[in-house]
């Protein structure tokens, strides 16, 4: 099956979408936490930077679609400023991970500009200009992209996945950390993509998509049933 191509969207502002200066937003968040000591404040400052109205104060943000059907040379796009009118970065205290959610509804599912479940990046040179002290204190990186290379995977056969913990994390993604209410994503694929990213971030062997999808289905199905029975005014 050939890779699906799409027309690039969003003005790049002269920035190369496939250059080495794009830093994962999780890395930017980690650096800010080191300075502020608070994940929520770090998420708040990141949102303010990418949503700044003045271009000289704005931190460029780029997203990459994770869908395998989209060709690698077509999966990047600059996140438009208008996107941040409705969305913001949130530090999810349950999984200690930066998420993107709607400002009003606080729907904690990966949000794409066209339905994809994306990975977000920020422009490292501008990040270092906005927070020069963090850039100066950051340890030297060995990888060309400015990201610490992950340790090599353990040799030998893959160990059995900890499905009890995986199911727990799936359930955690159905809870709104703002108020503790049950908010089950409409599409299971959103949680599957989020879980795959977490495994990659932790440098762990990623379960097969079919296995992960089945785990998400089994966890979310009864939760959706509970959510359906709860009166809307109580939610």
Quick gist of this model?
The chain is of the alpha+beta class. It contains 7 helices and 6 strands.
The number of E-state strands comes to: 6
What is the string of SSEs from the N terminus onward? EHHEEEEEHHHHH
Placed side by side, the strands forming the largest sheet appear as: 1-6-2-3
Helix content: 25-40%
Output mean pLDDT: 77
Q: DSSP strand (E) fraction?
A: 5-15%
> What gross morphology would you assign?
globular
| Major beta sheet summary | 4 strands, antiparallel
Class computed from helices, strands and strand pairing: alpha+beta
How far apart the termini lie comes to 43 Å
Rg, Cα atoms, Å:
18 Å
What keywords describe this structure?
two-stranded antiparallel ribbon, 35% helix, alpha+beta, 235 residues, 7 helices, disordered N terminus
Q: What topology does this entry show?
A:
Layout: E1 22-24, H1 25-36, H2 39-50, E2 61-65, E3 76-78, E4 87-92, E5 97-102, E6 118-123, H3 124-130, H4 132-137, H5 163-172, H6 188-201, H7 209-229
Antiparallel strand pairs: 1-6, 2-3, 2-6, 4-5
Helix pairs in contact: 1-2, 5-7, 6-7
